[in-house]
Design brief:
- By secondary structure, the chain is an all-alpha fold.
- It folds into 2 domains: 1-31, no CATH class; 34-73.
- The protein has 2 helices and no strands.
- The protein is elongated, with a radius of gyration of 27 Å.
């Protein structure tokens, strides 16, 4: 990252910020987790989370229906 205009044109804006940006890119974009075990573990975690959210959703649906039935009897 260099200054595009002005008296500092062409010089590096900040070596510290440039290094931080490069580190961020290396950590986020170039990190490949394509091993079989990693993908398997990730998939199982997502399935567990999905199951828990579905259970919570069903509980809320039942509670809403129950409250609706109580309101009709009042």
């Amino acid at each position: 990252m260099r200054y595009p205009k002005g008296p500092n044109k062409g010089s590096i804006i900040s070596p510290y910020l440039q290094q931080k940006a490069c580190d961020y890119l290396d950590q986020s974009f170039y990190k490949h987790h394509s091993t079989h075990q990693f993908l398997k573990d990730s998939n199982s975690k997502l399935e567990k989370r999905n199951k828990k959210l579905n259970q919570k959703n069903q509980a809320l649906i039942k509670r809403t229906q129950s409250l609706g039935a109580k309101a009709q009897h009042l």
